Amino acid sequence: MLKIAWAPEYAHPLPEGHRFPMEKYTLLPEQLLYEGTVSSENFFRPTPLEEKWILTTHEKSYWEKLKNQTLTPAEIRRTGFPLSESLVRREIIIAQGTIQAVHFALQYGVAMNIAGGTHHAFTNRGEGFCLLNDIAIGANYLLETKLAQKILVIDLDVHQGDGTAQIFQNESRVFTFSMHGANNYPLHKEQSDLDIPLPDSTDDKHYLSLLSTNLPQLIDIHQPEFIFFQSGVDVLATDKLGKLSLTPDGCRERDRIVWTLCKQHRIPVVASMGGGYSTRIADIVDAHANTYRLAQEIFF
Q1: pLDDT in tens, 172-223
Q2: What's the domain of life for this entry (predicted)?
Q3: How many CA atoms lie within 13 A of 216 on its CB side?
Q4: For 227, which of 9, 149, 152, 153 is 20 to 30 Å away at the CA?
Q5: Domain extents for the chain?
Q6: How far is it, in rounded angstroms, from Cα 283 to Cα 278?
Q7: Are 97 and 46 in contact (CB under 8 A)?
């Protein structure tokens, strides 16, 4: 059964006019239920994450400032969010959703988090709509509990997974792979284990050729025991914050490549949703929904 993390806190309200499209966190599960891709049994509601798992990834001093709402105005601006207690609670529930999804993936082969993919959160700071790095927390959870010792992060958001790269820069058991827009945020890129920077206006053919060449090689060489998939749909040509030119069909084929390889190699995988900022909310929801539709088709 495809298990999906979702909680009402995912749709945490922000001041009117804020550019981050929180409504997708409500519309996506509604769409999946309406079309029959999933039923209510597929969803689970995560609880807040235990502090000890946050501290496997983030510096205590940063976590204390976040928890106690004592970030400086400059630090808050870097996150892109107005800081609040409910926002921090949202982040820890998202991270717990990814940890719980880890166990479902080990059981069923795949699990998903309607939110997450918070790859711009570093050990000591938040950036780019990310306060806690749910993918890194999930990977460190696997390492600490000895459920996996070789992990691959596949980050296909249009923005480089800079926080994840920084967190695991000295951790050989976690291989970070980021395929992203070369001229997009962040201005300063960290060094992933493998970065593929893409020129503006990269189309389906070039993108899919690179992915279908590099990803099978990574899996063959590194033989991961577990995969985290950052499945942002801001690679679409319609995206306001992206600079690539993928069509919805191309984005769907991207997901098919990832899911098929995980299934073929019997590698458990957790997907976190990541970014999506197209002008029409329907384009965002449909592209994200394709990731879930294909997971059902390929794994079940």
Answers
A1: 999 999 999 999 999 899 999 999 999 999 999 999 999 999 999 999 999 9
A2: Bacteria
A3: 11
A4: 9
A5: 3-299
A6: 6
A7: yes
